[in-house]
Amino acid sequence: MLGIETSCDETGVGIVRGHELLADAVASSVEEHARFGGVVPEVASRAHLEAMVPTIERACETAGVRLADVDALAVTSGPGLAGALLVGVAAAKSLAIALGKPLYGVNHLAAHVAVDQLEHGALPDPCLALLVSGGHSSLLRVGDVTSEIDPMGSTIDDAAGEAFDKVARLLGLPFPGGPYIDKAAREGQISIDFPRGLTSRRDLERHRFDFSFSGLKTAVARWVEARQASGEPVPVDDVAASFQEAVCDVLTRKAVDAAASEGIEDILIGGGVAANSRLRVLAEERAAQKGIRVRVPRPKLCTDNGAMVAALGAEMVARGRTPSQLDLPADSSMPVDVVLV
Amino acid sequence: MLLAFDTATPHVTVALHDGERVVASYSSPSSMRHGEMLAPGIAQVLAEAGALNTDVTAVAVGVGPGPFTGLRVGLVTARTLAFSLGIPVYGVCSLDVLAAEAIDTGLDEFTVATDARRKEVYVARYAGGARIDGPSVARPTDVATEELVVGRGATLYPEAFPNAAGPESPSAAVLCDVVANERFELLEPEPLYLRRPDVAEAHAPKKVS
Ligand SMILES: [Zn+2]
To answer: Which among A90, A124, A292, B101 is least surrounded, fewest beta carbons within 10 Å?
Structure first.
């Protein structure tokens, strides 16, 4: 199974055989976006076009397979940047035509869940997925990953990864912010009490499993500005540690609460922010108290890649799902409960 | 067989050429849904001609200029098909395809103008069967002409281009002929964007609130 992913700034082509990972080729345009402080859709789309064939070629070389050996194809149909998705979808359709093989247009979020099968084997049914990246912050109840994904909560404003990027910029750290904040935080103290979004009793009534990071970002900005205004140096490491703690605290607290409320015994964390060291530690600590297990794929599989799409595609085949039609669309706002188009 | 398509306008046009003539063609309505129309269009012309994917020996693609999103659908399709079938891919300026058709209907000196959105047009000038200027992107008032104007630009901006003539959008059947007979320069399958991405660089951290 060959999977193609182009929903944001990574051109990913992965090849799997069942749960076995054969190749995970990724070309990133992140450096082209760095000077803009965020992903620029047109820049990403241009980069996908240029990277597509070379990345397919590299994946085949790594896997040691010829394209003709591929039995089926999968592609991210959505959600994501419309123009970026279209490049991957068109490429996947071309492969389907040229090779005469079935094509599965799948949901990016479900792929973030399915990828863990390449690392830890078959997914527990049900499991609770916490997906956190620059584009998503979702809590999902996952039964059969090819057909039963129910959203329990999501961010009502910024994605978690977006908050990392914005705070990093505020602190003069490079883009993307996640790894730099993580590194700075290791040198700092959790000494500033930043707000935890949507955790007050009133918010919990309506938004028990939702997230909000916009207020936190503003609070960090105000704190930093007040420091600068008074002429004192900004303790970057402490701000990073305190901000990171506020994010991880809310994410893990709500994930464990969601799992416990559904009697689910396994939490799976995916998305770029899953690479955050504090998030992993805190999630394991809190889950263990409730007798819940935590699964986190290795960082390379957490960020956007083609292997995750191939992993979900392989599961589609294993479960006998019907392939997509050649007119399958790129759907930038594809709902999370639509796993296969 | 030569498989040709163009996605540089709101239409998708596909044709299959057997070396002598066009054996099947497909044309979508004006919808901008290139991503959804192109692959079924290709499958349809292959089926109509009773051809296998492996019968295709070369791919031709219109490289624009045209709206970027649709243009990329055509280019990534052409490159991926050519790569996976191990066959060559030829690019042709989409304005040249319009010009070739206009020449076939007897035009000699004329301008081709297509919709570049944002109140601009993509333009090129032709004479004696060759492109003598362009392609470029311009405001209609800056390239207004009494000359015959081929393409959608003429019907969109009649004040700048009062003398509309010839086809409105490129045809893949003509694209086949351009490639088969090398009527215009054959290009790499690289998009003719003619515009840089529309972005501002990030500046120093903004004040929040
Ligand atoms: Zn993602």
So the answer is: A124
User: Does residue A82 sit in the same domain as residue A155?
Assistant: no
CATH for A311: 3.30.420.40
**Model pLDDT for residues B72-96, shown as the tens digit of each residue:** 999 999 999 999 999 999 999 999 9
Does residue A218 share a domain with residue A135?
A: yes
| pLDDT tens per residue, range A203-227 | 998 999 999 999 999 999 999 999 9
Burial of A199 (0-12, 13-18, 19+ CB in 10 A): middle
Q: Which domain holds residue A17?
A: 2-113+305-318
Number of structural domains (chain A) is 2
User: Does one domain contain both A55 and A135?
Assistant: no
pLDDT of residue B199: 60
Q: Which residue on chain B is closest to A165 by alpha carbon?
A: B205
Q: How many percent of chain A have pLDDT more than 70?
A: 100
Pairing state between β A10-17 and A137-142:
unpaired
For residue A248, pLDDT over 70 is answered with: yes
ipTM exceeding the 0.90 mark: yes
Instruction: Nearest by CB to A97, from B42, B193, B205: name it.
Output: B42
Residue A340's beta-bridge partner residues? A106
In a domain, A252, yes or no: yes
Query: What's residue A175's pLDDT?
Result: 87
The verdict on A172 and A283 lying in the same domain is: yes
How many residues are listed for chain A in this entry? 341
Residue A259 has which token pair? 């799992």
Torsion of CA B130, B136, B142, B143, to 10 degrees: 20
Query: Chain B within 8 Å of A99 (Cβ-Cβ)?
Result: yes
The answer to whether residue A132 is domain-embedded is yes
The answer on pLDDT for A276 being more than 90 is yes
- Residue A135 Cα to ligand 1 middle (Å): 6
- Chains A–B, number of C-beta pairs less than 8 Å apart: 120
Nearest by CB to A53, which of B38, B83, B85? Answer: B83
Going from the Cα of A112 to the center of ligand 1, the distance in angstroms, rounded, reads 7
The helix or strand, by DSSP H or E, that contains position A77, with its residue range, turns out to be strand A73-78
Phi-psi region of B11 (alpha: psi -120 to 50; beta: other; left: phi over 0): beta
CA of A110 to the centre of ligand 1 (A): 10
Q: Do A53 and B198 touch (CB under 8 A)?
A: no
Read off the pTM.
0.94
Q: Which among A52, A86, A326 has CB closest to B79?
A: A52
> What's the rounded Cα separation, in Å, for the pair B209 and B206?
9
Which residues between 53 and 112 in chain B have a beta carbon less than 8 angstroms from any beta carbon of chain A?
53, 68-69, 72-73, 75-77, 79-81, 83-85
Cβ–Cβ contact A170 with B under 8 A: yes
* Domains of chain B, start order: 2-94+170-180 (3.30.420.40), 95-165 (3.30.420.40)
**Do residues A86 and A160 both lie within one domain?**
no
Tell me the pLDDT tens digit for each residue of A125-173.
Answer: 999 999 999 888 999 999 999 999 999 999 999 999 999 999 999 999 9
- Which residue of B lies nearest to A66 if distances are taken between CA atoms? B84
